[in-house]
Amino acid sequence: MPSFLLSPVGRWLAGAVIVAALLGAAYVKGRSDCSANAELRKARAEVEYLSKRLAELDALAKRDAARAEADRQYIAELEARIDDTPENDNVCLPADAAGRVRNIR
Predict the structure, then answer these.
(1) Are 72 and 80 in contact (CB under 8 A)?
(2) Using CB atoms within 10 A of its CB, is residue 72 exposed (0-12), middle (13-18) or buried (19+)?
(3) Which residues of the chain have pLDDT under 50?
(4) Secondary element (H or E) of residue 94
(5) Given this model, what pLDDT does residue 59 score?
């Protein structure tokens, strides 16, 4: 053991170095814990925001699916009405009128 550490000043100095090292380690750990807690709070807030956004998008998708189903039913109804419409074999214009319209250019 060095003779310096055997003297009272050396002991005090060694004790001060040990205390400073412990305080430094505690400070670094405290900052690390604080930083980790801040990151955790930030991540939780982001998860909460994304969960709300996902719920909104899910609700929009459900509404869109319901609208699409209503549109499909309406289109099917219109197509059925088209199929139920009787054919009209009547000529819309007499032949001489059709010829006059054809000559206008």
Answers:
(1) no
(2) exposed
(3) none
(4) none
(5) 96
